[in-house]
Amino acid sequence: MKKKYNIVAVVSARAGSKGVLNKNIKLLNGKPLILHSLKSLLNIKEIDKVVLSSDSEKILNIAKKLLIILIYLRFFKIMNFLSYFYKIINIL
C-alpha cells in the first residue's frame, strides 16, 4: 500500500536555555541529549525525514554524525525561547 503522506519530524534545538544552559549537549548515558532525541525519531518507521534546526554549531556537529538528517543553522532573528515554530518551519 502506498503512503498518502510524507511525514517530517522537525526538531528545534537552541543553544541557550532558560533552565539548564546547553542542555542539548549535556551528556546522558555518555551521549549528548540531542542525540537521544534524534535517534528516537529515526527509529519511528512512519517518519520519512528528520530535520534539525539550531542556532548552535556544536549541536549541528553532533547531529552530523547521524548522516541521515537534514540540518539547518537558524538565523539570529528567530532564535530565542519565544521563537514561534511556524517561523522556523518557514525558514526551512
General description of the model:
It is elongated, with a radius of gyration of 14 Å. 27% of the residues lie in helices and 22% in strands. The chain has a domain at 8-71. Strand 2 and strand 3 (31-32) form a beta hairpin. The longest helix is centred in the middle third of the chain and has 10 residues, at 33-42. It has helices at 33-42, 57-64, 85-91; strands at 8-13, 27-28, 31-32, 49-54, 70-73. The protein contains three helices and five strands. Strands 1-4-5 form a three-stranded parallel sheet, with helices on both faces. With 92 residues, it is of the alpha/beta class.
Identify the notable features of this structure and list them briefly.
92 residues, alpha/beta, three-stranded parallel beta sheet, two-stranded antiparallel ribbon, 3 helices, 5 strands, elongated
Element layout with pairings:
Layout: E1 8-13, E2 27-28, E3 31-32, H1 33-42, E4 49-54, H2 57-64, E5 70-73, H3 85-91
Parallel strand pairs: 1-4, 4-5
Antiparallel strand pairs: 2-3
